[in-house]
Amino acid sequence: MISLGQIFKRYTGFLRRVKPAYMVNNWLNRRLLGPNRELYRKYGLRKSILAPISSADFKQHNPDIPWIDRPDAMDRLAEQPGYAALTAIQKEKVSRFIQDGYCVLEGFFAPDRVDRLNQEIDSLIGSGKLDFNYTGRKIMESYKVSQAVNSFFRDKAMIDFLNFIMGKPVVPFHTINFIRGSEQRAHSDSVHMSTEPQGYLIATWTALEDIGPDQGPLFYYPGSHRFSYVTTQDFDSGNSRWLLGKNPNQKYEDRIEALIREKGIQPRYFTARKGDVLIWHANLLHGGSAIARPESTRKSLVAHYFCEGVICYHELTQRPALLPHK
To answer: Is the pTM of this model over 0.90?
Structure first.
């Protein structure tokens, strides 16, 4: 029997555009939103924690951006708390992240550990405990039912490294599993998972098998994290007081496609080995390339982490993020 949760994950109808429907969901999850009262006061946002929220609510963004985004970040790197404890390789990776908006940790997860995760995911799909959402490509929040995924998601060494990069403690928020390539157009995560001040989100992409150029590998644009953030204020989203616009994601991706043409930038492709991890900046443009071998898989795990002490929300759907309490 299909659960209500499974039905909603696949639902693409009118209710996904109705803002009051999200407000009802916010009320049902008001305990999780409680900490936002203090954060709204801190950042001068005068509205109910149950109300829609978007970049339009911030007429001027708070200047307290992550240290990695400041013009003198490379000069300040050695002064950051915990820098001395990093290995030489980690120091090089952080430098790469500052300059290009991403870094790759080769062989971070052992192959046998990856194999166990894949076996568990296959079992959970087979039993019906996991399923794809309305995209037919994404398995959302598998960490809630998979101990293996949760152990990757909350890996202490990874969390410690992300904490250093961000300069704040990170909060594990969201996972997506892929079996096949997403073939998703270029985008940045910041329009889906947004923060005020801007930039306090970071993501990891773990290869769960060896991935070649014909399997629809991830692509990304080095240095694009330095571009201005694109929000619903930068394209015709069609949003109104009570309704979200039709196809805002498509309109957003059209705007990003135009931006890429304007900048004349070229992508790189992440042809990875099993256990490799790519870490990327909230504003790095990336996507999934075309699958050249139709029968191929591209097993991967994406994890997103917000930071503590900032306002977290979803720009496209104007929802406050439901962060778990400690």
So the answer is: yes
